[in-house]
């Protein structure tokens, strides 16, 4: 499958691909040549247990999905100006998982395209332009979405905050503005929602109305944050009173990832006006969807402006999405996410008892975060520890990543075929890695000593000539010597 | 392949899919269940000769493309944060077709995503926001692109013209502001480019600079318009003098459609700063690309903001794009476009001598337009005639469409596997259809009489019960009776 040596792939990548497109493990990136279920394989045939690719929802290279895509591709792939069965079957499957008010689908190619259309629908329907989004939120790579994504526009080189954008505090009861060590969870939910009410009031004071409130139902880039139970209910009420509509961004967290429900917003007592879905929908194939109410769809229709998306809802994309739906049901992947996810959560909580660098463990189903801290009282984020864990786990051939505003939250969002045995492997390894960093005071010295040794961190130029996993051996030696 | 009767597909579509997503032949839409090369087949097995689906560039269900996609799908489909060979091979193929200054690729999922990123790159690089686009131009369905697409924002229900958007006249020497019956072609090119210079001057007068000039190299939605030879060269000079960069939108017209060149901008003596490509790139699969200069890519890099596009440049998309490239070369499809396209153009010009409703025939390769007029002197657009032609050709099982600001231009942009025999079939049929409308004064009466007959235009509710092609028989009777 490999068509050139890794060194050449790296050289061509550096030469030809935009330098803003970043690689995982920049200093020694992985070349992945195949993947199956919850495993990815590099060019040497080494397997990596995949805890991060939520897009490969029903498992990498899922045979049923591949079959559906290949068969449809061989027969027809055209635009939705022609009638086709796959698109209406897909729409029916989606609608059947949603509350009754959500009854009209627009098919697009990516979560970004979905969120852009959602905002456009909101603007047309409400006639307003002021959007409320959350601190640390990410909603996509398009211009309109970077504008509302605090995670992006607020970066040092970011575009900054536009006038029509309002940022509400991230409803994170662990490390946000209102915390569970000062308030009850209900109180934090109420206080966070009050901040949204205040934004609504300010918009109203200016004689304007709200266009939309948009939020992920659980926040992923924000650091695997689970808003308090009463948060969205209160927020939706305030937003609607101010003339706005409510958009649930389910691009990362939808399609049964949390187990109990198809959609994470169903964890709350709310009915969004628009739901956007993407990533897992095509198991890697570019397909996404915006679902909304008849009323909002009709507002768009009344403009007389056609919506045409060249590939949106094409027969191949929809056949694949239908196969993803069927696979989730046939293989009981939602139940599995619940059972395996609970085991993961329990195991992480056990680990938290052993390692004081684990400040918080939170999650639901196969959406779990481990919040690493310098000490559990101050809750000061421990980014270095997270970096160390991600790197060391990779050396142990387990792929995890870190996110959150301070990059200190280890994220788990594996393919839904993840097993209890996989959890045990991850936990055992993580336990071992965290033991290495148990003595916080030694961490800096360790990393420093590794970095100072020339073969410690292979560079892009030379790594292809390195021996297998030199860094691991090196670290083991380093640790033994401490 | 059909999973439900057409009537049920229609009913579900009406119920579940956004009403702004329009069907071809709204009153009696086509249900297409399979397609091969330049033919599409409806649920009854009837074949339609496809003159409109430029997306199916190397032919519907092209076996080499299907094989590449299916094989890659079965092995790996993941994001480009992992190294993979297909993406760098694809980038290399693209770069090899372009001038030296265009050397950095960003992979995305659609022409819309490509144009959005192009504008973003332009803003970051120039620090300016004022965009110059053309009258009647269409650059995509995203918020940022509808803002610059006169074809969309200027509709009665459109969003209107934003302050940062400037619309230059469409460089159409047949029915635009400056015409070939008043000026030489060179003069029209100069005059149209002067209008862009004036816009640049106005922007400069306000103490600002230009962000970007964006145009399709040949204008498709604008009515198959071919700008004069000297137009872009002059325009690019003015735009660059005003601090702007130049974007060539090749989403519709790229990948050898015009035969002589890989990219239509190469028809002109210009070097764009950014080229966007999409539709034909994946032969129906969602893949697109932005290619730019090292300098512009570095401006983006310097912001420190990562560009991550979940599916952009994934192994399946790139394997498919690579197969499209290889197929174009292996099957000499550019040469074929040139030869078949010349035959199409010649044949249309022959037809123009017979039918005074053909005001202009223009094109290059397999990008051809027939401009239908009420009379050749005034050049008044004949929309009714175009509607009649599109409908009648469909009854003859040939798919053409009409576009342009007055919907009077019959567009040909068939799959590149189109043959001379296909051209002859189209021309013979078109000749026959145009004979039917030869007597302009009878046209209205004919259409009216057809519409007044209850079975004439099957409605969405009842058409499934209609006999095969009732309208054709009806029209033939009508014509005989005249």
TrEMBL record, chains A, B:
Source organism, top-level taxon: Eukaryota
Gene Ontology MF, one: pyridoxal phosphate binding
Pfam families, per the entry: Aminotran_3
Organism: Rhynchophorus ferrugineus
UniProt KW Magnesium keyword: no
Entry-linked PANTHER family: ALANINE--GLYOXYLATE AMINOTRANSFERASE 2-LIKE, PTHR45688
Source organism phylogeny: Eukaryota, Metazoa, Ecdysozoa, Arthropoda, Hexapoda
Similarity section: Belongs to the class-III pyridoxal-phosphate-dependent aminotransferase family.
Keywords linked to the UniProt accession: Pyridoxal phosphate
Protein name: Uncharacterized protein
PROSITE patterns: AA_TRANSFER_CLASS_3
Record's keyword annotation contains Endoplasmic reticulum: no
GO cellular component: mitochondrion
């Amino acid at each position: 499958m490999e068509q050139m040596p890794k060194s050449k792939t790296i050289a061509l990548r550096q030469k030809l691909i935009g330098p803003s497109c970043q690689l995982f493990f920049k200093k020694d990136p992985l070349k992945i040549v195949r993947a199956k279920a919850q495993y990815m394989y590099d060019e040497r045939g080494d397997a990596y247990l995949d805890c991060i690719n939520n897009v490969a929802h029903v498992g990498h290279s899922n045979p049923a999905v591949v079959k559906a895509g290949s068969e449809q591709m061989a027969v027809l792939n055209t635009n939705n100006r022609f009638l086709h069965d796959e698109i209406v079957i897909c729409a029916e499957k989606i609608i059947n998982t949603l509350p009754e008010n959500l009854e009209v689908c627009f098919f697009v190619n990516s979560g970004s395209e979905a969120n852009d259309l959602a905002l456009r629908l909101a603007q047309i329907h409400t006639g307003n332009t002021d959007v409320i989004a959350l601190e640390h939120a990410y909603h996509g790579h398009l211009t309109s979405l970077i504008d509302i994504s605090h995670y992006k526009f607020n970066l040092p080189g970011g575009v900054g905050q536009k006038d029509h954008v309002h940022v509400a505090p991230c409803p994170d009861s662990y490390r946000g503005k209102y915390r569970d060590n000062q308030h009850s969870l209900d109180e934090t939910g109420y206080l966070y929602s009050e901040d949204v009410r205040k934004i609504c009031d300010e918009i109203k004071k200016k004689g304007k109305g709200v266009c939309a409130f948009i939020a992920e139902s659980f926040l992923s880039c924000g650091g695997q944050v689970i808003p308090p139970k009463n948060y969205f209910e209160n927020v939706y009420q305030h937003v609607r009173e101010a003339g706005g509509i409510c958009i649930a961004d389910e691009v990362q967290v939808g399609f049964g990832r949390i187990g109990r429900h198809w959609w994470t917003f169903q964890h709350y007592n709310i009915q969004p006006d628009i739901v956007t879905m993407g990533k897992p929908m095509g198991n890697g194939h570019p397909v996404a969807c915006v679902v909304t109410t008849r009323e909002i769809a009709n507002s768009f229709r009344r403009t007389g402006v056609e919506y045409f998306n060249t590939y949106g809802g094409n027969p191949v994309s929809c056949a694949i999405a239908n196969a993803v739906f069927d696979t989730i049901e046939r293989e009981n992947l939602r139940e599995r996410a619940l059972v395996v996810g609970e085991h993961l959560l329990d195991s992480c909580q056990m680990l938290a008892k052993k390692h004081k660098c684990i400040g918080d463990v939170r999650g639901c189903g196969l959406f779990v975060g481990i919040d690493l801290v310098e000490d559990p009282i101050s809750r000061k984020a421990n980014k270095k520890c997270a970096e160390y864990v991600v790197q060391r786990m990779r050396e142990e051939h387990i792929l995890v990543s870190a996110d959150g505003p301070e990059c200190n939250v280890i994220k788990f969002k594996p393919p839904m075929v993840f097993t209890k045995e996989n959890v045990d492997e991850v936990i055992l390894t993580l336990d071992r890695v965290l033991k290495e960093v148990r003595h916080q005071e030694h961490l800096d010295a360790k990393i420093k000593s590794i970095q100072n040794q020339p073969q410690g961190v292979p560079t892009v130029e030379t790594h292809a000539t390195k021996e297998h996993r030199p860094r691991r051996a090196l670290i083991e030696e380093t640790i033994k010597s401490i």
